[in-house]
Amino acid sequence: MKKIIIVANPTAGHHSQSRIARFTRHLAQAGLPASVAHTHYPGHATILARDAAESGLYSHIVAAGGDGTIAEVSAGMVGTSAILGILPLGSANVLAHELRIPFNEIRNAALIRAGHFTTIWPGYLHTQAGPQLFVQMASIGFDAHIVHTTSTRLKARIGRAAYAVSTLSSLLRYGLTEFTVLIDTVPHRATTVIVSKGSLYAGKYALTRHSAHKDKKFSVILFETSGKLALMKTVLSLFLGRIGRQKGVRTLTAATVQVPSPAAIPIQSDGDRKGFSPACLDISPSPLRVAVTPAG
Q: Does pTM top 0.90 for this prediction?
């Protein structure tokens, strides 16, 4: 019999505890006993997932939370035979939208029961804090500054709208810094770089035409804009789904991305603050199995 463990972030989303309870109940009705382990501090989800994966007792380890929780759980089980389940509870839930994970607890439990999965290749962000796995995207520059300055209390109150508030504030206050980005060792200049495995941004907004989740490569979006007005137009084009046609924005593919700048440029990955440059990003040497609805 399959055994399930749910690694839950108790601070993620409104009504998260009632949704986890319903999800657990539906799993039990499907003949899948599930236990719940709550996280208590940053990085705890990785420890819980690693212990569960190494025990060999669980077919699925479910991340109940937002993209940051999913990344932490993934870091503990990447390269193992355990399958990552996702119960989306965060403010953006980008990976869930990307992989078309059901938000409905009944459909999500049925997905776990069916046992279907896809294999994806996450990325690693290397900074002075050490290597950190990410599953959807990382960024350096203006986009990361928004994450750094978004109030966690406000995000808990109004969800994704908190990022809109922070974006407006950042457009006025952030000082653009041009830096060198080495894309597969080839130098480029930019004021912001987004390194993405998926095709979506901040929920359902289109960032690229194609997802790179199943490939050992990244999509790299370079913002070459240097003025506040140009940056404002670029940000607007992103939320209007026109980023690919915006002047001053280039999209490339790469297996490695380096930002050697010592100028303390902000970094984020999967919606969490990750310090400042310098940084290097590369593909995980091991894949990750993720429970998904089969295509077709």
A: yes
